[in-house]
């Protein structure tokens, strides 16, 4: 797994050490899956799978810490953030794009984009500014302003995997599910782009920087990566449409090619100096929406199971690793104040993000499609931090000197563990208190969505004079998002897939089927 | 892919370089699959898939060699034999065990074991002795005797993937297919055990070694690894039999656990200082035979496709890498004599192996089950060298000093490329000349196999007095191999699977279905 730290000389010895390390990791993986399964079967929602994996990592790490073999075990587990970024994150991010079911996603497209792009930007800036002010007021360790913004960006990537799995168990409103899931998928892309932009700003000469350049850099990363991802996705769609691989028992070839494309997209973006994560995410969305339907039926079943399997393994592994790492790593616990106030500040930033964006969205939505207050609270509550924040923090250790990266890493790890354990454990209770679960899957599905394509009925006509201009602008944006569905149906789908536009109704599944269990949605 | 050689400092830069390297590899993989597919579709048997991959690697390597970017491309491609042994070989070896169809394998069990164990031992020793004698006679570079035996061992691992794929295309006698496939699967285990034994003998004080200790070491490696593999396989069978995961839409959990077991077996053996390759091979055989039938139907389909996909990718990648490597590496071409005579000697050793073992087997088999001369020739002809020989040679570079490992590596690479290109390209022609293809799949299937279980009719009664004692011994062995099928049917299958013993007839497929294309055998 990692060749750089192990001493050279005897490859056999080295291989044996690596063997034992990986063996331990596999045993923890197996244990996590089994424990997670047992807990789920007994409907014990206080310890979701992710929390269980984290705890297993914590316990094994703690045991390894006590025993005197620490150094060697540490070496086996020691992989760089490179391993994370090249091998663990891509399948997870691809899968999150791939398992977006297009219909609820597109019908809430405007709201999701608002939360993910605008909201994440607000949350990053609010967190960064608050952390900087906290430093100025001697509440916490003082970081330079740019580094505060980097921290704000990386900590704004949410990962509500636990909340979503409980939504699925208990059943919830489809729009709420789409909002939580869609926001978390897209805000990863936003957070990583913001982080990279700030990182570039920091490493360049700070005097020559102006706000305009920052915006350009950000657009370069975000739009560039997105275009690369979408481009690769469309290329794959055309390839599978015209190569005629869905006949002839060529499923193995078909699957091999399909599986290589996401990685190709990832590496293409990295090779161009863009963000592979953002790219693979959009490749996932495009490949699911267009390429997927060009596959033969058997290959469709296989690839969705394949990506589900790979991402489950990677995700469980990341949670185990995070637990193990927090038990083993020499963290700078002296900065406990930093951790405490960070948690406070990200909670504030999350609330600012959700409620301000929801206010804007409700301004433009018709009365029957308002995001109700309880959904806003549930969305605010779903702000768990996970793999992406951890991976970026791991990278910040390399990016920042003077131990600043170490402080950010420790704070991020603590935030991830706390949010996963506390929010994850209390989700069931909280969601029931908010009365957003158990509505049945399609309670809100049938009504109100038809008006979304094109014309938005202005049933809520009490125009406040102050918000009026803003509202008109937002509505315009809303309409353009809606008209995207039309472009998709009329031009993109017929061009990139072998089906005609109308048949997309078959994908009416309220929750991504591949999340529910292999083959379940297809049998 | 490799962290140790790239300079530290800027992880972003490093990541970008790795990105471009992996991007290139993915593009070559895609190209290989597409070219292989086009060639197969046009029934162009002179350039099978493996050869095409090798050539693509050679060409890209050659181009990279010409361009001035050589150094950086070399760094991207530079992975240790560790990467091979930990990530590329395990899926291939597991898949070869997993795709053994039990029935033809067990009905030719005695012959396969004779070829693989006894024959590979003969071939290794013959090659080693000839190379040593060649060195003494100044025909080629003189290596120490132990190193000659190591070379003999590693070069005796055959990999007839090309031959087998052409067998499948053209259709051949099922017994011949079982012999070629079974021998190549088991002789990998034998070769690696012999190589490791010799490696231990070499590194220890040579004065204290005697023949007895060598045997003990060999048994330790081979039997120990085999037991570990079989043990893990049986454990998995019991787990899946009693865990009740085949209900309840738990296929994802089921698949995750199933996929982790082979790797667990591999790492367990490595951790114990045994051979992970041998272990994972036997885990594959046991898991296919017992665990597999305890899975739910959907998971069965998924896991066989999964392993097929993973091993196809790894195999293609290895051939590309071999081609790339031979174009890039600074080989010691001064030892061209070594290469020439090695090729001669391994051809002799292969012939000695096949014809002497076939003679022994024919002594004991009844007249209607003799291995005909044309099958012997086809078997002898199928002695291509591939991934395993390459991987062991890569390791020998680390194991042997004074450039001896480099000589062995160069010779092995040359042998692999030549056998894959020449034998692979001429297989179609040769097999048709031998009239062993086009017999139809089950021409020989129905007849003559029933007598194999238990009683062997001694229809060929002209007992030569010299061979008599040997024959009686061989027959005893043959009977014990046959009685293994009975133990399997009466005790092992009922104990480890949820089916009763009779139902194994459903697996009557003459060729491993997963080799033929995803889902093909199941639809």
From TrEMBL, chains A, B:
The keyword Transport applies. One of its GO terms (biological process) is regulation of intracellular pH. Residues 32-432 form the Cation/H+ exchanger transmembrane domain. GO terms for molecular function: potassium:proton antiporter activity; sodium:proton antiporter activity. InterPro entries: Cation/H_exchanger_CPA1, Cation/H_exchanger_TM, NaH_exchanger. The keyword Transmembrane applies. It is found in: Membrane. Residues 494-523 are annotated as: Disordered. It holds the Pfam family Na_H_Exchanger. It is a multi-pass membrane protein. Gene3D superfamilies: 6.10.140.1330. The chain crosses the membrane at residues 20-39, 45-63, 83-100, 112-133, 216-243, 263-286, 306-324, 336-358, 378-397, 403-424. It catalyses: K(+)(in) + H(+)(out) = K(+)(out) + H(+)(in); Na(+)(in) + H(+)(out) = Na(+)(out) + H(+)(in). Keywords: Antiport, Ion transport, Membrane, Potassium, Potassium transport, Sodium, Sodium transport, Transmembrane, Transmembrane helix, Transport. One of its GO terms (cellular component) is plasma membrane. Belongs to the monovalent cation:proton antiporter 1 (CPA1) transporter (TC 2.A.36) family. This is Sodium/hydrogen exchanger. The gene is LOC107962389.
């Amino acid at each position: 797994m990692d060749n750089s730290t192990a001493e050279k000389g005897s490859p056999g010895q080295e291989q044996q050490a690596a063997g034992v390390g990986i063996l331990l990791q596999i045993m923890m993986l197996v244990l996590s899956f089994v424990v997670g399964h047992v807990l789920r079967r007994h409907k014990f929602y206080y310890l979701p799978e992710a929390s269980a994996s984290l705890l297993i990592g914590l316990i094994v790490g703690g045991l390894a810490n006590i025993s005197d073999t620490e150094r060697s075990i540490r070496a086996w587990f020691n992989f760089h953030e490179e391993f994370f970024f090249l091998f663990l994150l891509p399948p997870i991010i691809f899968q999150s794009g791939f398992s977006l079911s297009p219909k609820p996603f597109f019908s809430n497209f405007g709201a999701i984009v608002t939360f993910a792009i605008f909201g994440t930007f607000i949350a990053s800036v609010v967190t960064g500014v608050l952390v900087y002010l906290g430093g100025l007021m001697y509440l916490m360790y003082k970081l330079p302003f740019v580094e505060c913004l980097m921290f704000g960006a990386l900590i704004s990537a949410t990962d509500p995997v636990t909340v979503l799995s409980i939504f699925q168990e208990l059943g919830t409103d489809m729009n709420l599910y789409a909002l939580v899931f869609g926001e978390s998928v897209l805000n990863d892309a936003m957070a990583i782009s913001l982080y990279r932009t700030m990182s570039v700003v920091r490493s360049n000469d700070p005097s020559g920087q102006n706000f305009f350049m920052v915006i350009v850099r950000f657009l370069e990363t975000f739009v560039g990566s997105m275009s690369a991802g979408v481009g690769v996705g469309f290329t794959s769609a055309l390839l599978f449409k015209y190569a005629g691989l869905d006949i002839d028992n060529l499923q193995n070839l078909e699957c091999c090619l399909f599986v290589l494309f996401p990685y190709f997209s990832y590496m293409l973006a990295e090779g161009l100096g863009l963000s592979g994560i953002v790219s693979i995410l959009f490749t996932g969305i495009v490949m699911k929406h267009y390429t997927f339907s060009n596959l033969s039926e058997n290959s469709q079943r296989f690839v969705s199971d394949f990506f589900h399997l790979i991402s489950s393994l990677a995700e469980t592994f990341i949670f185990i690793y995070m637990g193990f790492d927090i038990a083993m790593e020499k963290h700078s616990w002296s900065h406990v104040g930093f951790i405490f106030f960070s948690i406070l500040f990200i909670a504030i930033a999350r609330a600012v993000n959700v409620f301000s964006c929801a206010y804007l969205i409700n301004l433009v939505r018709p009365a029957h499609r308002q995001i109700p207050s309880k959904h806003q609270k549930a969305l605010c509550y779903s702000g768990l931090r996970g793999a992406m924040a951890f991976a970026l923090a791991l990278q910040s250790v390399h990016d920042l000197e003077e131990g600043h990266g170490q402080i950010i890493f420790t704070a991020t790890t603590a935030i991830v563990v706390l949010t996963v354990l506390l929010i994850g454990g209390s989700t069931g209770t909280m969601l029931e208190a908010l009365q957003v679960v158990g509505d049945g899957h399609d309670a809100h599905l049938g009504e109100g969505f038809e008006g979304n394509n094109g014309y938005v009925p202005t049933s809520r006509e009490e125009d406040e004079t102050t918000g009026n201009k803003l509202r008109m602008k937002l509505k315009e944006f809303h309409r353009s998002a809606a008209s995207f569905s039309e472009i998709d149906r009329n031009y993109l789908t017929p061009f990139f897939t072998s089906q005609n536009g109308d048949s997309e109704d078959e994908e009416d599944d309220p929750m991504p089927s591949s999340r529910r269990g292999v083959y379940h949605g297809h049998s």
